[in-house]
Amino acid sequence: LQAYERRFPTCPLIPMFVASDTVNEYKSEDEAIHVIERRCKLDIDAPRLLKKIAGVDYVYFVQKNSLNRRERTLHIEAYNETFSNRVIINEHCCYTVHPDNEDWTCFEQSASLDIKSFFGFESTVEKIAMKQYTSNIKKGKEIIEYYLKQLEEEGITFVPRWTPPVACKLESSTSHTRRPVSPAINIPDSATKEGLNNKELLNTSSSPSEPTAGTPDDKLDADYIKRYLGDLTPMQESCLIRLRQWLQETHKGKIPKDEHILRFLRARDFNIDKAREILCQSLTWRKQHQVDYILDTWNPPQVLQDYYAGGWHHHDKDGRPLYVLRLGQMDTKGLVRALGEEALLRYVLSINEEGLRRCEENTKVFGRPISSWTCLVDLEGLNMRHLWRPGVKALLRIIEVVEANYPETLGRLLILRAPRVFPVLWTLVSPFIDDNTRKKFLIYAGNDYQGPGGLLDYIDKEIIPDFLGGECMCEVPEGGLVPKSLYRTAEELENEDIKLWTETIYQSASVFKGAPHEVLIQIVDASSVITWDFDVCKGDIVFNIFHSKRAPQPPKKDSLGAHSITSPGGNNIQLIDKVWQLGRDYSMVESPLICKEGESVQGSHVTRWPGFYILQWKFHSMPACATTNLPRVDDVLASLQVSSHKCKVMYYTEVIGSEDFRGSMTSLESSHSGFSQLSAATTSSSQSHSSSMISR
């Protein structure tokens, strides 16, 4: 609290916080209650034109801090005074003592934004408000740690807790019994944590009996960070630990390695909510299309091996693996006509998987973290043939998939001998490339790459390929025109694309409000084991398991299933007849399980009777009063962009005979788990659950 109070009347670490004035203050006689109200002057980072139209240079907020030393709580309320008739902003923060450990601080934050009108710039104001809000959250922890350090430098390492005056003690002892007052405590480094996600509850210190150093769950070893992850600030390290912990709680047995989690965090500037969203989507994508096994199970067609002018070639000066692509010599039209879009995409995915493997190898060889590779693209020979529309379409899709699933893997892109037609291609593809990735592009026209600031700054002379004037023989195929005799018809390519798309053990299903998706499993022998593995790709669902002695009617695809975007999946099948009654025609054999968006669920059920078992994924409606916290702004915005009555699940089920089952999860090894190869080794503890337990 003392560190927090030092932010006023102004804070040099918050440039937008210009000044503040105390407009009202109250203290109780025993000093247990302290309420202070301030008027804060802010210089919002907004376009000058918008400020001119609005007629203001600064905006004013009113902040009310209510401290209750007796209850050990601090409530902070803030609302805007400027333009309050056009924009309504409310924010509430609350610091309390954890009920189970008084050395822990609970932090809860919620905010709301309502833009009624703003001179036609409502969308701009919303973006500015969101940007400012997230910026303040990220900065909060750094600020509080700065002032905690300042207190320590002044010799203040502990603060006595408030105790009631003697008179108050005597009076209170005659009326009721109070909880004994704890003695003064030291202020740990993590005693106060700000800059956390909305509605997040953090344990900000450990009890003395718990290990706090060298354990991967709460702190990363400094040598480990330096060796495998690179320089991380305390805030970045904290984000990595928190995201990994969340994955451990929701994705049992398939936690990506720290290096991979870190890539997604860096791609979203260490915004945990955004990184978590794209990481979950990527893990689901990898699992559905079995990307983890692509290097072991997929052999590129001979056409690709002969005419795809790309390959790995040593490493750059920073130790990054070097990939060489002679795009100008490649017949993109011929490759698309001979192979189709899906085969090209799969080949690019195999290249990226190989890149991840080479990064791990180079990390071991060079003794420092290497998490990305360098790509050298030679455009000599690029012409209008390369701008063939289906070829550009395939390129854009490849870029989209790679951007979504391999973030922060491109360390540098060297584009050499860019011809006059290159700006046309760049105009087409650049909007699909992330801003951070675009900053890594270096483009050289003609022979500029041979001069100062050119290729020699990034690649050792000894490994410059021969076709670029170097002395190193490069084994990358030279490309050339694909013979038309290898072209395939549109129908053949379409069938091949569908085959590649559907090569997965997982099925996709759409779940709608009032239209669950159901899967029928017939059991002949009692004590068989039904196992399942599913991911909730979108929305929240309720998972149920039912048993019936009689078979339901043949499944009918619900008409709503036509809304599914995925061509081979997205089914919606309903089996339970509307006239069936629970308890008479069928019974529930497991308690309903509520599964949130992004969660991965694995479990099993030992059947007690033969008959028909129905696995059901049902739309989950959140009751209006189910939570006291306001929804995250990100969630609200996302709900505006997608249907609020549609969920998606990706699932796999298998039945194991009773003779193969021995009552523990270790005997479920015959089940195709599809766990990610990016994961570290699963600990033995995750395999010790009982067979009837549903594990997330």
UniProtKB/TrEMBL annotation:
Transmembrane segments: none annotated. The keyword Cytoplasm applies. GO terms for cellular component: cytosol; Golgi apparatus. The gene is SEC14L1. Its main location: cytoplasm. May play a role in innate immunity by inhibiting the antiviral RIG-I signaling pathway. In this pathway, functions as a negative regulator of RIGI, the cytoplasmic sensor of viral nucleic acids. Prevents the interaction of RIGI with MAVS/IPS1, an important step in signal propagation. May also regulate the SLC18A3 and SLC5A7 cholinergic transporters. It is found in: Cytoplasm; Golgi apparatus. InterPro entries: CRAL-TRIO_dom, CRAL-TRIO_dom_sf, CRAL/TRIO_N_dom, CRAL/TRIO_N_dom_sf, GOLD_dom, GOLD_dom_sf, PRELI/MSF1_dom, SEC14/CRAL-TRIO_domain. The keyword Phosphoprotein applies. This is SEC14-like protein 1. One of its GO terms (molecular function) is RIG-I binding. Gene3D superfamilies: CRAL-TRIO lipid binding domain, GOLD domain. Residues 502-655 form the GOLD domain. Keywords: Cytoplasm, Golgi apparatus, Immunity, Innate immunity, Phosphoprotein, Signal transduction inhibitor. Residues 171-192 are annotated as: Disordered. Residues 300-476 form the CRAL-TRIO domain. Interacts with RIGI (via tandem CARD domain); the interaction is direct. Interacts (via GOLD domain) with SLC18A3; the interaction is direct. Interacts with SLC5A7 (via GOLD domain); the interaction is direct. GO terms for biological process: innate immune response; negative regulation of RIG-I signaling pathway. Residues 1-156 form the PRELI/MSF1 domain. It holds the Pfam family PRELI.
